[in-house]
Amino acid sequence: MKTQTIAILIIILAITAYVSFEGGIYYAWLHRPRILRVFFGAAAEVPEQEIVKLYEAETGVRIEATYGGSGTLLTSMMVAKVGDIYAPGSPDYMSSANKKNVTYADSVTILAYLVPEIIVQKGNPMNITSLEDLAKPGIRVGLGDPKSVCVGAYAVDLLESNDLWEAVEPNVVVYVDSCSKVASLPVLKSVDAVIGWHVFYNWNPNSTDIVWIKPELIPKIAYIPAAISKYTEDRELAQQFINYLVSNEAQAIFREYNYFSTVEEARQYAPNAIVEPIEG
Description:
This protein has about 280 residues and is α/β, with parallel strands linked by helices. Helix content is about 40%, strand content about 20%. It has eleven helices and ten strands. A five-stranded mixed β-sheet has the order 2-1-3-10-4, sandwiched between helices. A five-stranded mixed β-sheet has the order 7-6-8-5-9, with helices on both faces. α2 (about 45-60) packs antiparallel against α10 (about 250-255). The protein is elongated, with a radius of gyration of 25 Å.
């Protein structure tokens, strides 16, 4: 009888230990760190950094953000098969992501609109006032790499549509691999001018000036989309963050840097420009 009692106690203790162990695992799972890996095209790096910090503080979710050229980021995601969200700097790269089965097309959300403009050193020492001035002898021009950086592709398209590419190309002294590097070129005085997004001036208002291009000369309006990656392991959380990117709090930060919330705002600076749809 005594042996039987001891055996029962051992069984009870074993069951209790097992239940406690399983309960601990479940508790740990419920309270596991929630992480999202987001691949941001650098076209909105400055406001997105602020938005990420705000979201992390409000939710406790950690955002592992990678910024860079939209094409380079897409390639990295495909090679490593990682990422929860892809947010390139223009619609053409999102179309590519959809066609390559990297993103859920039904999750695409537009965050902000952009137009290309000329950004020069503070005080505009070379007196650049137009696209045509970029072809003048001695003017040093910097561009994003048109093969991997959205603003570089838009710059070349802008010049070609105005029959200026052949005249300006000899003055291009550097191609860089991200929007943030394009924006930094006049700050560092590495070039006299870049063709960048209009918001680059708002990133560095104390060290650059903006030269507005004649509105009728701009052929395309760009916009920043975001979509859930098919590599995500938490689609619901990824969708929550995309929703936050278009929330009032996040949009207020975009507006601080003069990003356009609507296509109508952008059209004030490019009334004849097309807005390319996202394919795929």
